[in-house]
């Protein structure tokens, strides 16, 4: 058996192909914006809430604020995880900050002065890439939210200034793979979560080597591959959103 044959299988997709993606928006009748996103076997429910109250640090400012929260359901994974009640959970806090920074980069918050947008991302099923899938689901839910504001006449200008997405990319053996599932993430020598726009503008990069240092050129290959993959994923997400009837 060769070393390459021991690598996790890709279920028919090539190294640079992301997992199949589908999204349905408007799934929560109580939220002014929502989306259910499936990426491979990972499923995310994202909802948007608009509160007519400024965030404490934004009082008196010309812009509103957007914040995000992230949680994983107890049976989102193979084994039951304790329900996340502790707001100081380090991993969750880190992911929430990432989601907030990513999604704020997509919205012109001057349209929401003295208001706060909450984007809640809940992992229904986890198979790797939950934070990048949450960014994609959050973007879809914001699209739904803004569409409703426009159609209701509450806004006249489209407030989303960038189409922001994310993807994971990893070094599996000597091969670069896009959109790692859980089995691939476990054996990656290095992996990055790349947050970028559909035009290739970089917002944030998280990650690094797992089994020892990698070469600078390997890191740059991972980054460049991730940026290109985000463009493809956002094109796919755009097609999914385009076929959903407006409200």
Instruction: Tell me the name of the CATH class.
Output: Alpha Beta
**Main sheet strand line-up:** 1-2-3-5-4
Question: What would CATH call the architecture?
Answer: 2-Layer Sandwich
The figure for the number of domains is 1
- Give the SSE string: EEEEHEHEEHEEH
Low-confidence stretches: 1-5
Binding site for phosphate: 91, 129-131
Keywords: Nucleotidyltransferase, RNA-binding, rRNA processing, Transferase, tRNA processing, tRNA-binding
GO molecular function, one term: tRNA nucleotidyltransferase activity
Domain Exoribonuclease phosphorolytic: 19-145, 164-228
List keywords for this structure.
Ribosomal Protein S5, domain 2; 4-stranded antiparallel sheet; 28% strand; RNase_PH
Describe the fold and architecture:
- The structure is a single chain.
- This protein has 247 residues and is an alpha+beta fold.
- It contains four helices and nine strands; from the N terminus they run ββββαβαββαββα.
- It is 29% helix and 28% strand.
- The chain has a five-stranded mixed beta sheet. Strands 7-6-8-9 form a four-stranded antiparallel beta sheet.
- α1 packs across α2 (130-152).
